[in-house]
Amino acid sequence: MRHGPAEDHTESGLDADRGLTVAGRERVRAVAKALLDANEAPMGIITSPLVRAVQTAEIVAIVTGLGERDGGVEVRRGMAPGGDAVQMVHQLALVRRKRVLVTGHEPDLSGLVTSLLGAFGRPFDKAMVVGLHVPDQGGAARLRFVLDPRSLKLETEGAD
Question: Of 8, 54, 98, 110, which has the fewest Cβ atoms less than 10 A away?
């Protein structure tokens, strides 16, 4: 999942401190509810340490009731811009972690999805979720769904 729409600037002037806008928070809540309604709520969340990604992860956790189930929100530097998320995702598959939501940034998420699928030919909008099945034995991932944050529809056409 890409983080929701964020502020352009902060008082600190640091990009890492940019938080979600009010509209961004609402969009993330709506996407989280759509995941819940589609029985695709995460069982764990791994997020970038940047404020806007952490806020996105926390909203998804609250809306989907993740705090009431196993898992939780885990902050990892590897999800920050320029991190190596591909290795992390393969490790999660190897230990058979299921339905882990990875929250991060562009262009890293497009690169991650392309690395796992072999190709991904669409823009990664803010608050968009791409559901993949990553095999624990290695090999290419399989696209399960795309959740468009504007329509709130789970698109499975072209996915297995």
Answer: 8
Instruction: Please give the domain boundaries of the chain with CATH numbers for all domains.
Output: 15-155 (3.40.50.1240)
Enter the tokens of residue 155: 């698109």
Give pLDDT < 70 ranges for the chain.
Answer: 67-71, 157-160
Q: Tell me which residue has tokens 């095999």.
A: 135
Q: Return d(Cα 116, Cα 43) in angstroms, integer.
A: 20
Helix, coil or strand: residue 142: strand
Residue 77: CB atoms within 10 Å: 10
pTM value is 0.91
DSSP conformation class of 43: S
Give the containing element (helix H, strand E) for 52: helix 51-64
- Asked whether 32 and 57 are in contact (CB, 8 A), the reply is no
DSSP structural state of residue 122: S
Q: Which residues pair with 103 in a beta bridge?
A: 47
Is residue 41 helix, strand or coil? coil
Q: What does the alpha-carbon distance between residue 30 and residue 111 come to, in Å, rounded to a whole number?
A: 25
